Amino acid sequence: MSETFTPSRRRLIAAGGCLGLAAVARPALAGDASAAAVVAAARAGLERHGARVTERDVVAVADFSLPSRTPRLHLVDIASGRVDALLVAHGRGSDPSHTGWLSRFSNAPGSDCTAEGAYLTGQDYVGEHGRSQRLVGLDASNSNAEARAIVIHSAWYVGPEMLRTHGMLGRSEGCFAVSPADLPAVLQRLGPGRLLIATRL
Fold first, then answer.
1. pLDDT in tens, 91-148
2. Cα–Cα distance for residue pair 99/33, rounded to 1 Å
3. Would you state the CATH architecture of domain 9-14+25-199?
């Protein structure tokens, strides 16, 4: 967390004043991802993978075109179109210089990268990172999710305090790490059988 952070114009625009955000999910779309694009991505994911998705009320869309300091894990209520946005970390292999921006996706074991694609949410369990949720990769681009133990979990390096101190979140090993304060709501809304999409919008 000691890297020097030099914001570019795009980074300053995408920051959107999020340094003062609480950790809890809120109805907001930060940066350059419009509500329409997020909802469209959620609905397109359901069209593509509907046969595997048993619960179609909520879809998560992680927009990794945005920096880690921006709430970019969007929980989409399909019926109403409401979108709640919260913080989520990306993998250290996707951001080796620790700039706060994802530079590449990878499905390779040992890459410590975030993998692009659609995931099916599974059961929650208690593991190395406490309460977590299993994920199954539905695309060739994230087919190793289970073998890589890519899951949703909380992490100390995700939250407003990290943003105030470092201007960016810490990095995971490819998992979708959220704030400890956000995890209960995420697991409640993304119970088993729902869709999570990792992409760039």
1. 999 999 999 999 999 999 999 999 999 999 999 999 999 999 999 999 999 999 999 9
2. 20
3. Beta Barrel (2.40)
58: part of which helix (H) or strand (E)?
A: strand 58-63
Domain ranges of the chain: 9-14+25-199
- Nearest 5°: phi and psi at 91? -75, 150
DSSP the chain: --------HHHHHHHTTGGG--SS-BS---TT--HHHHHHHHHHHHHHHTTT-S--SEEEEEETTS-TTS--EEEEETTT--EEEE----BGGGSTT--SS-------TT------EEEEEEEEEEETTEEEEEEEE-SGGGTTTTTTT-EEEE-TTSSHHHHHHHSS---BSSSEEE-TTTHHHHHHHT-TT-EEEEE--
Pairing between strand 130-137 and 151-154?
A: antiparallel
